[in-house]
Design goal:
Strand order of the largest sheet: 2-3-1-4-5
Number of helices: 7
Radius of gyration: 15 Å
Largest sheet: 5 strands, parallel
Strand content: 5-15%
Helix content: 55-70%
CATH architecture: 3-Layer(aba) Sandwich
Length: about 170
């Protein structure tokens, strides 16, 4: 199996939840890139966006990926939703490990994140419109970064994790 399994996709697609279950099933270490950056910087993503702007945050993501490329342990990486879309991160992700794009429709994403106040890009009146437009912009990067795509709208977290394990076993054959 891959040493680093990378979960990519839009905010609310299930990367963090699936990452926890998958790490438990495989015995891998879970790293959530947003949480890691928050810990390193000593501030929330919202505060990082306010103080450094989106570009500053994206540079932190790229530095994190470059550092991760030297890791010597089995890792499940749950990425931030915009990570594959900036600074040639799509290519870095492909180099680092096996990437799975957790795809979800705008309406399902909206239902999952509509009450979440920790997402700076959704601090707008028309959240569904913003989700639809951002997802449309990002889709090509997610597909470029992904080794495999899983449609998550109708699947539970456990079903998604089990599907990833099946994909990994298929990759090993």
């Amino acid at each position: 199996m891959a040493d680093i399994i990378i979960l990519i996709g839009f905010m609310g697609s299930g990367k963090s939840s699936v990452g926890k279950v998958l790490a438990g099933k495989l015995g891998y270490k879970l790293i959530d890139s947003d949480k890691y950056i928050e810990q390193q910087e000593g501030k929330s993503i919202n505060d990082i966006f306010k103080e450094c702007g989106e570009a500053g945050f994206r540079n932190m993501e790229t530095a994190f990926l470059k550092n991760l490329s030297t890791a010597n342990e089995d890792i499940i990486l749950s990425t931030g939703g915009g990570m594959p879309c900036h600074n040639n991160n799509a290519a870095l992700l492909k180099e680092i490990g096996f990437s799975v794009y957790l795809s979800a429709s705008p309406s399902v994403i909206y239902e999952r994140v509509k009450h979440d106040t920790g997402r700076p890009l959704l601090m707008v009146d028309d959240k569904l419109g913003k989700i639809t437009s951002l997802l449309s912009e990002r889709e090509k990067y997610y597909n470029e970064s992904a080794d495999k795509v899983i449609e998550t709208d109708e699947l539970s977290v456990d079903e998604i994790a089990d599907e990833i394990i099946r994909l990994l076993k298929g990759e090993a054959n």
